Amino acid sequence: MAKPMDQDERARTWFHPLRMKLVDQLRKNGPMTQTELARAVYAEPASARYHLLRLQRAGFVEPAGTRPGPKGITEKLFRNVPTAKEPDMEALTFSTKHGSKKDTELRKHHFDQAAEAHRVGERIALSDPGRFFGINMMEVKASPERLRALRDALRATLMGFMSGLEKPGDDAEQVTLCVNFYPQTTA
């Protein structure tokens, strides 16, 4: 039997982009199999299984029974375990104290999310180029105050865009929009 996880290990288990996507799918859709989850998050079934087992050990998901599957196999279902102990997923802000433990954890979390979004995007772009919307990069020089104004303007524009969307139909495409502000260094 596995030893119980301490809170730090539990938080490390949670702060993995693929694991957070798996739990999000279970929250939205209810019990699902590892194959259904893998398909939903564009991952391999074996990878989904590995991460589901890690989440189960940490107490974020649990078995939800079985059902008959294709070719006479029995499929195992997983479900989300709602808990008030899940780490806070707040966004990194300009007011977060630079270099603090929270700052470091949030930055790592956001970089991991961005890396996962790029990994999934690359897979889709190579396997189904018609669904790829592209990448834009632009360098900007501005003071911290102007960068905050840019961030706020982008947020307001996105919120306005999203509020104007009707209920998505069958042809709705879900995308990840990743806007990063990286300081550049001179070598």
| Nearest-integer average pLDDT | 77
SSE order, one letter for each helix or strand:
HHEHHEEHH
Which structural class should the secondary elements be placed in?
mainly alpha
CATH topology of the domain at 7-80: Arc Repressor Mutant, subunit A
CATH homolog superfamily of the domain at 7-80: Winged helix-like DNA-binding domain superfamily/Winged helix DNA-binding domain
Tally of DSSP β-strands: 3
Q: Trace the largest sheet across and list its strands.
A: 1-3-2
Sheet with the most strands, sense and barrel status: 3 strands, antiparallel
Task: Output the radius of gyration.
Answer: 19 Å
Q: What does the model show?
A:
This protein has helices at residues 7-14, 17-29, 34-40, 45-58, 101-127, 144-163; strands at 32-33, 61-68, 74-80. The chain is globular. Among the domains are: 7-80, Winged helix-like DNA-binding domain superfamily/Winged helix DNA-binding domain (Arc Repressor Mutant, subunit A), CATH 1.10.10.10; 88-128. A hairpin with a 5-residue loop joins strand 2 (61-68) and strand 3. Helices cover 48% and strands 9% of the residues. Strands 1-3-2 form a 3-stranded antiparallel β-sheet. It contains 6 helices and 3 strands, in the order ααβααββαα. The chain is mainly α and 187 residues long.
